[in-house]
Amino acid sequence: MTDTHITPEQEKALIEGKDILASKQSVLLQLGQIQAFNFIGKLVNVTELKLAQQLKDSKEYKGLVHQDEDGNVVTITTWEECCKYILKEKRRNVDNRLINLQQFGEEFFEAAQNMKLGYNDLRVLRQLPEDDQALVIESEAVEAGDKDAVKQLIDDLKAKHKKEVDDLRQEVLASDAMLRANRKLNDENVMENQQLKEQLHQRKFSPEKWKGDVKDFFAVNAKANTQILEGFS
User: Fold this and answer.
1) Where are the annotated coiled coils located (predicted)?
2) Residue 10 has pLDDT above 70, yes or no
3) What is the pTM of this model?
């Protein structure tokens, strides 16, 4: 029997390999759970999405390997690659479902999936104010699973919200116009007041100037009288 000698380098590589395998055990179990539901490539179930969220948050997908259609081995390094190669879904679609689950809660998310509410409907719902979202989520239409009624409610609230935004925008525009008009009127008043001040300053009575003018008047008058008297001499 031949003795198998393991060099220190080989032993180190084996230990590192075991450590890597141990570190990936959790993510492999999660992926196994997703595959066990046989929904891979769909990810519409709350349980699946919660597992996908754990996978995304932990980043334990990094280092997983995948063999593509050409037989090339791809090492997963990003969440987008994980979605594409492992979850078989576009990252944007997975992220949108995770956002919907987080924002609306498990109960409504399940109800929306059962009613087959479309992505656009849920996107519009996300854009509504929280109070309007609550009206939809807690509505009898959702409880009854009435897809058409839910869609109509979302559309009505969207129209209501748009009108409120438009009305507010018009109020802002009107306020801006009034502010500009008042500012213009104020500028005109300031200019007019400045002109009046300048005119008053020009017309302002000066005692010293008046004294000088009177003195000059009498001096000229005296000189004229002297000349007249000299003419009679």
Assistant:
1) 151-202
2) no
3) 0.56
